[in-house]
Amino acid sequence: MEPKLHRRVQRYGWDMAVQDYDQYFVPLLRHCSERCLALLDLQPGERVLDVATGTGIAAFLAAEIVGPEGAVVATDISQRMVDATRAEAERRGIVNMQCEREDAEELSHADASFAAVSCVLGLMYPADPQRAIAQMQRVLRPGGRAAVAVWGRRDRCGWASIFPIVDSRVESDVCPLFFQLGAPGALSYAFQKAGFVDLHEERVDRPLCFAGERDVLAAVFAGGPVALAYSKFSPETREAAHREFLESISEYRRGDGYEVPGEFVFMLARKPVLSEAEGL
Ligand SMILES: C[S@@+](CC[C@H](N)C(=O)[O-])C[C@H]1O[C@@H](n2cnc3c(N)ncnc32)[C@H](O)[C@@H]1O
Predict the structure, then answer these.
(1) C-alpha 280 – ligand 1 centre gap (Å)
(2) Ligand 1 surroundings by CB, under 6 angstroms
(3) Ligand 1 nearest-atom number relative to CA 103
(4) Is residue 248 part of a domain?
């Protein structure tokens, strides 16, 4: 897919997904934000950028840790995600957090303006993830840290059939490179290529537990990356896609619910200080 179109599909697709994502996926994916923040080891007073913030899980956690002397900028390509995060920050009376619509590939912030950057389950979506990683490196100050999480290998993510099921009903692949950074060593390679050092990569299995059919269907069809394509399906097409998907995860049925395997990869990396970058 042409990159400009890819970005529009992401932007407007996630606009449609906000509510279902927040309701059905966020409780299952919160652990990724918690792990990224633990890896970052943020300190009070630090300035943090959260890329692809969604409804802001990592950003809210970071705002609490860095405190009133620190600041968090929460960014996302979807205006509705940004609006939802900003509304929640206002509701909670959080004053050290700013929310902005920004493409991860074209961050507007100055070079070396953050002590830490997080990007939780966001790097599967930019048209050019390597460019997004280079942007994170650019906005970090020397010595600054980046922590990211991505989905792991396709065959370890029990819900991965959603892509061929939706792709077979639309004209182009929805997220053809979704699992590319989940391959062993792929994140490390990408971060090293962008000039990061002290790379730490870890891989974690954690199932997604859904209460029943309604929840799993709402999450994967309406609350994720296929939301835009799904919104255009007729009722008959939806019904057929639902049936095919439920059949594909039938082995993970537990009583009324589902326990669907999920694999996640985490990376912590550091931007070198000048003497390291110059090989001194
Ligand atoms: C799976 S959600 C993750 C949200 C949040 N970080 C979390 O852990 O819940 C992916 C997010 O990436 C955003 N996204 C997709 N492409 C993006 C891009 N090129 N730049 C910034 N955000 C992007 C989407 O709008 C969506 O909010």
Answers:
(1) 38
(2) 10, 14, 26, 29, 32-33, 52-54, 57-58, 76-78, 81, 103-105, 120-122, 125-126
(3) 20
(4) no
Residue 208: name the closest of 167, 160, 173, 165 by CA: 160
CATH of the domain at 56: 3.40.50.150
Bridge partners for 170 per DSSP: none
Residue 162 · residue 170 · CB < 8 Å: no
Domain that holds residue 269: 3-158+173-210+261-275
Rounded distance from Cα 276 to ligand 1 centre (Å): 32
Confidence band for 280, pLDDT divided at 50, 70 and 90:
low
* CA 77 to ligand 1 centroid distance, Å: 7
In this structure, what is the dihedral angle of CA atoms 143, 61, 100, 221, given to the nearest 10 degrees?
A: 120
pTM over 0.90: yes
Show the beta-strand stretches assigned E in 173-234: 197-205, 208-210
What CA–CA distance (Å, rounded) separates 194 from 206? Answer: 29
Q: Whose CA is nearest to atom 15 of ligand 1?
A: 125
Q: What is the mean pLDDT of residues 129-137?
A: 98
